[in-house]
Specification:
Radius of gyration: 21 Å
Oligomer: single chain
Helix content: 25-40%
Order of helices and strands: HHEEEHHHHHHEHEHHEEHEHEEEHEHE
Distance between the termini: 38 Å
């Protein structure tokens, strides 16, 4: 199976069947024969309408291996898998500068320029500054990151809009590593005009095997049984410590939670997660910067009930599937900013996970926190130490919990 369609087919385990007249899009740094492809689903089968290395190859590489962004963030080429998330968080501190973006674009975003001294000279020349080193606390560098993020968004939205106009598609299924860019995803949701948008939880290369298997199953059976994102090996369990855990969380404890089957994909979705109350900046710094050793500019995400999302997030609408897998951003209403002070981005948004299933242990904890302590959301971040994958086993969790210095590890 070509990698392009394996990405797309990774949607099937979570939707069962593509909607008729769906646009199927893959965008990734490199697949079998392209960096981006577009397909139309009609009469129960896909037809490829475009595949190219040229359309978006530079755009995607600009986001994961751009030498200028690497220099600003202190990264190397070996950090290409972690760079997109870091760049996206850092870009939220930047400002729109159309002249800067046009200059970067005219220089092909300096892709291929490896000499950091040369890059610094170019920056100094454009801004009229005299920096002797890259300093990611300086506004000029934040603005460069914003320009790279905005250029990525514009190119991806333009490509999808062109394919939508060409096909007249009403629905969108979108996969590939580029679909982890939550700001671009949110603009697609808000601006593209599709009736529905779906991105799978394992949208990066982590979903390729699943996509290939799902397509094979579909070809034999005509549909794929719907799954939750919890596809790991451990069986679900029943939580009976809701009141105790809620009380400890209200007291600003930082807790590692291991429950049920582990998540598929790169995002922690509540089964292998670290949780803490989301309304405290100092607690976020302790968890993110000191325990997990993350950079100062990287935000953490909140998890909340759908009733909270409907009330407190201005652009959340029931049925928004981006929020099921933490793949979109949402603006916090001004009157509720204090309830999200530990997780709100510099641009006033949050990358929310919205829980709807009352069978989930975390759902019941959130209900208790809201009703008894008026806590609207929890920080939700992956349960792992820096440089290691998300924990899977109980042994992993206990070891990582000690290294991180968590107040408690709960295994259910």
């Amino acid at each position: 199976m070509c990698q392009e369609f394996a990405h797309i087919a990774s949607c099937l385990p979570f939707i069962g069947l593509f909607e008729e007249n769906s646009l199927l899009i893959h965008i990734d740094g490199g697949a079998t024969d392209s960096a981006s492809s577009a397909w139309i689903w009609e009469s129960g089968k896909p037809t490829m309408i475009r595949a190219s290395w040229d359309d978006l190859k530079d755009v995607v590489n600009n986001y994961n291996v751009n030498p200028l962004a690497q220099s600003i963030l202190g990264l190397t080429m070996e950090d290409h898998l972690s760079m997109p998330g870091k760049l996206m968080g850092y870009a939220s501190y930047g400002h729109c500068n159309a002249e800067l973006e046009a200059w970067l674009k005219s220089n092909r975003w300096f892709l291929g320029t490896e000499d950091r001294n040369e890059l610094l000279r170019e920056i100094n020349g454009f801004f009229g500054t005299n920096y002797t080193e890259f300093d990611n606390h300086k506004q000029e560098f934040m603005d460069v990151a914003y320009a790279i993020q905005h250029g990525f968004e514009e190119a991806v939205l333009g490509y999808i809009a062109e394919m939508k106009d060409r096909t007249g598609a009403e629905h969108l299924c979108y996969a590939g590593g580029a679909a982890l860019n939550i700001d671009a995803n949110s603009r697609i949701r808000n601006e593209s005009g599709f009736k529905s948008i779906f991105i799978p939880p394992c949208t990066s290369d982590s979903g390729l095997c699943l996509g290939a298997a799902a397509w094979s199953y579909f070809c034999e059976n005509g549909e794929v049984p719907k799954q939750s994102p919890y596809l790991g090996p451990n069986e679900p369990t029943i939580l009976d410590q809701v009141e105790d855990l809620a009380k400890e969380l209200s007291e600003r404890k930082v807790i590692g939670l291991v429950t049920g089957r582990s998540e598929t994909g790169p995002r922690a979705l509540g089964h292998r997660s670290i949780i803490a109350r989301a309304d405290n900046v100092d607690l976020r710094r302790t968890l993110s910067e000191y325990m997990k050793k993350r950079e100062w500019y990287r935000p953490v995400a909140p998890v909340m009930l759908e009733s909270v999302a409907e009330t407190m997030l201005s652009d959340y609408a029931p049925g928004d599937r981006l929020a099921e897998y933490m793949l979109g951003t949402y603006h916090v209403r001004e009157e509720y900013l204090d309830k999200f002070s530990g997780v709100v981005h510099a641009n006033g948004t949050v990358r929310a996970l919205v829980l709807k299933d009352n069978r989930e242990p975390l759902f019941r904890i959130l209900v208790e926190l809201l009703e008894k302590y008026d806590i609207a959301a929890l920080i939700l971040t992956s349960f792992n130490t820096r440089g290691e994958p998300i924990v899977e086993t109980v042994e992993d969790a206990m070891r990582s919990g000690k290294v991180l210095g968590l107040d408690r590890v709960v295994v259910l």
